[in-house]
């Protein structure tokens, strides 16, 4: 069974047709990257997967649950679908360790000893165990984003969504975040759906590359075919040409 499946999904903001006829299946364990120009619908699409944006038509099945069904418990889906945003959304008045431990404590009722041990393991995984007792404001943007990733992993989700996780960072901080994401993709069976402008990451890590424009999926290829072959869609070829040129 696919982890995520869009079936003829339509999304509107008033009269604006934001997502058009989206049909997409993502299998468990895949790393799929969404690319395309600004305003193409990438972030809207990813935000529908955990119910942050409702769809108006079609079916959206996530981990066996149909988000289009009003009886579906969205909070139950979110236990298994983590999300890392462009901005870190850490609690400013809580330490790094407390930020990571909070959701598992409240939502999963995880025992405190186990919760702290896992949080420290995750801090070690993202290279920030020494920062456990600091407040977010004492960390760089790149460090805060790595904490946000650790916080999402603390729920032990089956799927992680990344909505342009490096776009708010200074250039020298981007690699540290991307390296953590690469480790997750390569060393676990996590399903990852990533909106990004980082073409090096997409080329190296993605199983598939989805190209979107004007609310539509115009290209769905393996990473090798998209970057080393030639996209079949003319708009995707133009986009790729500009990326490579610049």
UniProtKB/TrEMBL annotation:
One GO term describing the cellular component: plasma membrane
UniProt keyword annotations, A-Z: Amino-acid transport, ATP-binding, Cell membrane, Hydrolase, Membrane, Nucleotide-binding, Transport
Membrane protein topology class: Peripheral membrane protein
SUPFAM superfamilies: P-loop containing nucleoside triphosphate hydrolases
Compartment(s) of residence: Cell membrane
InterPro entries reported for this sequence: AAA+_ATPase (IPR003593), ABC_ATPase_HisP-typ (IPR030679), ABC_transporter-like_ATP-bd (IPR003439), ABC_transporter-like_CS (IPR017871), MetN_ABC_transporter-like (IPR050086), P-loop_NTPase (IPR027417)
Pfam families linked: ABC_tran
Superkingdom per UniProt: Bacteria
Keyword check for Ligase: no
Top EC class for this record: hydrolase
EC numbers, comma separated: 3.6.3.-
Domain ABC transporter: 4-239
Gene Ontology terms for molecular function: ABC-type amino acid transporter activity; ATP binding; ATP hydrolysis activity
Family from the record: Belongs to the ABC transporter superfamily.
UniProt protein name: Glutamine ABC-type transport system, ATPase component
Gene: glnq3
